[in-house]
Design a protein that fits this description.
Blueprint lengths: L5 E7 L2 E6 L6 H15 L8 E6 L8 H13 L4 E7 L5 H13 L5 E4 L2 H9 L4 H18 L3
Parallel strand pairs: 2-3, 3-4, 4-5
Antiparallel strand pairs: 1-2
């Protein structure tokens, strides 16, 4: 059985796929996913902004330190992000409230939190090329298939 972990990858175009299978348990997890994101973003020319699709459905409420680290790193990457959508689980209303606050504190109006995958795909799709939209649909479906969430 494969070890479940957080991942960041650009598979098509400029769509940065973030899958948080274990969430942000502490600052170490936050720093690791942003290091992985940096590796992916550095593969693109500096003038290219990424479109982020993040699956946060398995994240739960995080510690204050992890939340602060997350806001710091989100803010740091604002210049390289055209749009960023994260999907969270409605089954964790406390986490959704925390994530909404953290995204707001990241000071990027083009970052949004969703609880509906179709709404997220539609909003991100407005700025994606056709091949990136297809990959986004696959990413969201893979998340469901792989981790059993909807």
């Amino acid at each position: 059985m494969a070890r479940v972990k957080n991942t960041a990858a650009i598979r098509v175009g400029r769509l940065l796929e973030i899958r948080l299978a274990v969430g942000f348990r502490n600052v170490v997890y936050v720093r690791q996913i942003f290091a992985d994101m940096a590796t992916e973003i550095e593969k693109l020319p500096p003038s290219v902004k990424v479109v982020v699709a993040a699956d946060w459905r398995f994240c739960r409420v995080m510690s204050g330190d992890a939340g602060e680290a997350l806001v710091h790193d989100l803010t740091r990457y604002n210049p390289r992000v055209e749009r960023s959508g994260a999907i969270a689980s409605e089954d964790s209303p406390s986490a959704v409230l925390q994530f909404t606050r953290l995204i707001r504190e990241s000071a990027n109006p083009d970052r949004r939190l969703f609880t509906d995958a179709s709404a997220m795909a539609e909003w991100l799709g407005e700025v994606l090329a056709p091949n990136e939209r297809r990959r986004l649909a696959d990413f969201l479906e893979e998340s469901v298939d792989t981790f059993g969430s909807s």
